[in-house]
Amino acid sequence: MSVRRWRRPALRIVVLAAVALAIAVWQAVGPWLFPGPVIVSGRVLDGRSVIDGDTLKVAGQSIRLYGIDAPELRQHCDGWPAGEEARRALAAIVTARPVECRRVTIDRYDRTVAVCRAAGEDVGELLVRSGMAWAYQTYSLRYLLPEWQAWFDGLGVHAHDCASPSAWRGGNAR
Predict the structure, then answer these.
(1) In degrees rounded to 5, what are phi and psi of residue 158?
(2) Are the C-beta atoms of 103 and 85 separated by less than 8 Å?
(3) CA nearest 125: which of 102, 150, 105?
């Protein structure tokens, strides 16, 4: 009798875990399985195209990188200029390299949200893995593993006492 009681909750947990895993996988591969239209293709960017650690401006169009949240430009973490370092990191990734961006959606600020690749490498993943951005788990889990790796290695924002950008914005309203 006690074995049956144990199996039912365990089965529920296994089913819920499987559903959560399926959702995470879908979120991670969805933009690649069903990519949106190409909005930037093969364009070589310069540092002036980088607005902050997660936003580009190409041909007058603001492009927010999908699935990540970089420190705000004016954000400092225990004296370290996190926002400016994130902007520099993005500039280093996209400068003088062919960039391709595929639209995922439009955000509430009317910016295009896109997955971008520079010379074939996922820009968001490079930023998160180097500790220059967080995985934006509200929208996608695709960068969660690179974030854990950066945290484990103590890179970038994980090496400093950094608040998340949303928490920083809340405490530093303009």
Answers:
(1) -80, -10
(2) no
(3) 150
Predicted TM-score of the model (pTM): 0.79
Amino acid at 42: G
**φ/ψ of residue 112, rounded to 5:** -75, 130
Whether the predicted pLDDT of 170 surpasses 90:
no
Asked if residues 91 and 50 have their Cβ atoms less than 8 Å apart, the reply is: yes
Dig out the tokens for 103 from the structure. Answer: 């639209």
HSE (side-chain half, CA atoms, 13 Å) at 21: 6
DSSP output for 62-103: EEEETTEEPPPTT--BTTB-HHHHHHHHHHHHHBTSEEEEEE
Between CA 168 and CA 160 the distance in angstroms is 14
Q: Which residues contact 32 (CB under 8 A, 6 or more apart)?
A: 115
If we measure between CA atoms, which residue out of 169, 139, 142 comes closest to residue 64?
Answer: 139
Note the pLDDT tens digit of each residue in 80-132: 999 999 999 999 999 988 999 999 888 888 889 999 999 989 999 999 999 99
Q: Model confidence over 23-71: pLDDT tens digits?
A: 666 666 665 555 678 888 888 888 889 999 999 998 888 999 999 999 9
Instruction: Locate 78 and state its tokens.
Output: 């225990």
